[in-house]
Amino acid sequence: MLLEALSSLALATVISFAGSVQLGPVNFGTLHTALHKDKKSAIRFGFGGSLPELLYCGLAVAGAGWLGRFEQWQEILQYCTVVVLFVFGVYLWFQKSHSPEGQSSIQTSKGNELLVGATFGLLNPQLFPFWLVVITNLKSYGLITSTHVVVQVGFVVGAALGAFLLQLLVAEVTSRKREFIYMRLTRNYNKVLGAIIVGIAILQLLINL
After folding, report:
1. Contact 117, 49 (CB under 8 A)
2. Within 10 Å of residue 186's Cβ, how many Cβ atoms?
3. Got the DSSP string for 6-67?
4. Which spans are transmembrane here (predicted)?
5. I want to staple 154 with a disulfide (CB 3.0 to 4.6 A). Which of 1, 9, 59, 127 is the partner?
6. Distance CA 140, CA 186 (A)
7. pLDDT, greater one: 74 or 3
8. Which of the residue ranges 112-121, 130-139, 194-203 would you say has the lowest mean pLDDT?
9. Measured between alpha carbons, how far is 64 from 69 in angstroms, rounded to an integer?
10. Whole-number Å distance between alpha carbons of 167 and 73
């Protein structure tokens, strides 16, 4: 049983890590926090953004029967995501950039990164359908056969772990390459990131229509 639980955890971790490599509010939030604050703040943001994986993956594990109950909420969350991305992009566009040397003088509000990251993660409408499809396919191929609660919990924890490992990597790489990013973007990284995020929001809106 323990071996099955560990295998389930490892499988979900790999799938979640790979599936999280996409343009989304949590990834952009971790990147921005690492640039604008510090690595520890970015890690807290990324950890908060990974927690909703527990909720959505857990719901997906509970069964496809949940899908009908959450269809209307999925539509609402899709438009909420568009709003979050658009507001976040506009905020970045008008936010003044700071030089790496001036990072220590930036006044930051410590401690709220976890909550903000969790909020961004909750507003990701792709998580539940993603895990629902993944789990259905894994069961059809016989990669998930056990219905024991320990094995299922291992899978759900692995989903959050994989997402967090990616955010940890983003925070680490961004913190190490901060000066390079500033130089490459000529200290206009806020406008560049803001424009990209607004573009994604518009694209998401067109897809939802």
Report:
1. yes
2. 10
3. HHHHHHHHHHHHHHT-S--HHHHHHHHHHHHS-HHHHHHHHHHHHTHHHHHHHHHHH-TTHH
4. 76-94, 114-137, 149-169, 189-207
5. 9
6. 50
7. 3
8. 194-203
9. 10
10. 26
Please answer whether residues 173 and 27 qualify as being in contact, where contact means their C-beta atoms are separated by less than 8 angstroms.
Answer: no
Helices in 95-177 by DSSP H: which ranges? 113-122, 127-140, 149-176
Contact criterion met (CB below 8 Å) for 34 and 178: yes
Pairwise CA distance, residues 88 & 197, whole Å: 7
User: What's the length of the chain?
Assistant: 209
Q: Residue 66 has what pLDDT? A: 53
Q: Is 188 strand, coil or helix?
A: coil
CA nearest 2: which of 126, 117, 153, 172? 153
Q: Which residue has the higher pLDDT, 25 or 186?
A: 25
Structure tokens at 52: 């909703």
Rounded Cα–Cα distance for residues 7 and 161 (Å): 14
Question: Could you give the angle at the alpha carbon of 7 between the alpha carbons of 3 and 13, nearest 5°?
Answer: 145
CA atoms within 13 A on the CB side of 116: 19
pLDDT of residue 50: 96
Dihedral in degrees, nearest 10, Cα atoms 3, 134, 84, 72: -120
Q: Which residue has the higher pLDDT, 195 or 59?
A: 59
pLDDT at 71 (0 to 100): 56
Q: In angstroms, rounded to a whole number, what is the distance separating the alpha carbons of residues 38 and 159? A: 25
Extract the tokens encoding 144.
């998930």
Between CA 200 and CA 131 the distance in angstroms is: 22
